[in-house]
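Researcher: Go.
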Amino acid sequence: MEIVLLIVAMVVVGFIMTYVSKLIWKDDLPVGMPNAYIVGVVTAVVVGLLDWVVIPAMGFSDTLKVIGAATEPALSVPIVFWIIKKARS
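Model: Structure:
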């Protein structure tokens, strides 16, 4: 049940951070508006799930797992947009 809540939370984070990224780049996102939300949500979900699985596998505590799953997806969405923008230019 907690994995479903994690995925739902990461989808919400993906939508929010895509909107924030749109504000940062003033509607000049590198993949277009409909695709930007897809990229943002997929990035947030993948990074959130990786944090949820990889951090405990490395031997870190559950607290660090929750902190990583809460912060890294939000930070990764603008970074992925920046990487796409640099790759296209």
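Model: The chain has a mean pLDDT of 88.
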